Amino acid sequence: MSARADRPTPGWLAAIPAAWLAVFFLVPFAIMLGVSFAHRVPGGFYEPGFELDSYARFLSPFFGRILLTSVALSAGAAAICVALAFPFTVILARMGGRAQTLVLVALLAVLSLSEVIIGFSLSTLLSKTAGVGNFFAWLGLIEESRAYTPSLFALMTGLCYLALPYAVLVLYPPVSRLDPELGEAARIMGATPLRAFWTVTVPMLRAPLFGAAILVFVFTLGVYLLPQVLGQPAHWTLSVHITDQAIFQSNLPFAAAMAVLLLLVSLAMVGITLLLGRAR
Amino acid sequence: MMKRRAFLAGTGAAALGTLAAPSVLRAQSGPLKVGTYGGYFEESFRTHVYPDFTEATGIEVESIPEPTGEAWLVQLQQAARAGQAPADVSMMAQVARIRGERAGLWAEIDRGAMPNVDNLPEHFVYAYDDGRFYGTGAVSWFITLVTNTEVYPQAPESWTAFWDPANENSLGLLALASNSFLLEITATVHFGGKEILETEEGLLQVMEKLAEVKPNVRLWYRDEGQFQQALETGEIPMGQYYHDVTGLAAADGKPVRSTFPKEGAVLDSGCWVVSRASQAIEASQVFIDYMAQPEVQAKLSRFVGTAPTVPRAMTDLTDEEFAAVSSDIAPIIPEYDLYIDRADWVNQKWSEIVTG
Asked: What span is annotated as the signal peptide, if there is one (chain B) (predicted)?
């Protein structure tokens, strides 16, 4: 296609995504960072300035607990998603071509559902009046229908439903490229299928597994609607509180400070995970 | 997703930044520009109110849809600094009105030229601390005690139902102090009035009392749709909600009812104010005065579903029409100042004690 085979793509092409990133990520982030140091005017908005009040307000047991809740929820979702997605993907990779395509299309279809639809569907499915409780009662498993939402279980189900396709999509390419002869070799040398899976397959896929976990973790950390719909106030994440401050309290400096801190914490978590992934 | 969140917060700030450049730069002659909340309100006013106003006064109206929340206040403020008024008259939420008052954003208007303002009760007449009159109540609506009629065949009579152990895990309440007005309700019901809200100790006492409802609360909602559906199905059979919307749902055949508790329902409202940059003060006065007429308020009740800002006796609303939008029981008026002067403190304690 190109007349000059040594340079198939022009170098300046990289400038487009770089400029995109600068305009739509770095600039807003810089504004957010600036606002987080601004002076909150009680009964008004904010004035430009440089003060640490918003950060100081965050340093309390109350917000510490909220941050911990957010991180724990996302970490839990990441662990569950990877634990479910990995065996699922291994089985998927062994299916026939047509079956694989069908499953992947179904998974991609899930991605088209918004957080709102997932949240409201689950809250109906887990409700007392129209939910699975009626089915369990009909089966005689429980005496009368009950609600399973709002609860940690409902919230976790929502988070995993939202994020599982991403975990599968991250794992699918490396798993499908995995050479089946390696597992067979282990089996010939006397390993049980389970042992071959744990000692050969899993270590070879450590990087994609950590990758999938990080993706789910970061993805679910930004979720702010599901905790409101499916969770109790104890499960309201930092993202929910950021929304409250920005939209309902007009306290943009505090909202920005919380967003900056959440970003730092998630970067730190990603860093730690990457280090762990490399160490062994 | 980190990007998405950073982007969200970032664009919020950026939006405030770009508002600094007033987008409306045009000559101040021509029709009177009246701003109302975009959507249902703007449409209703454009259809049912402005044509009659023009016919009665000869003043043409240009309808301006406003964003809800406080974005409009920021826009008016920035534009006024540049000597511009994106709207002459604006409908404002109470908290935004007070913020504008503190910033001196509202133009003084001549009460002497507005005889109908005398129809309004004192809490719908607004003036600066030095007595300069600047605005009136525009529309009002009630937040009442709502129930699912299938789960509660008997209508509850009092807000105390929220504290009744029999209603465990069955309430839907608004999630924020500043939109639920549950502090005012608790103070009225359990502490004999809102005076206790004047001090921080009193506020804490009220919050502790309100925290007792926690075992009964199934949902703290921010989005109306979230609760309305659950109320209609009986999933969350009791709570606080808007009287007008509940009435519409009941008229649709949904098993819901709205009750004015004997202690009073919460009366929230919007108001009319004029930007100090407006060149059409006189026409604005005519408009605000026109809106304070009992006939116009009755029309709003019939066509827009809002409660009249004038006493009922002045209007020709039938019992049925009046009951659809209001009640004779004295209302609980929100302590808006609380959500301005002590906003951060109240919000923090609310998160820790009430919803936390």
From this structure: 1-20
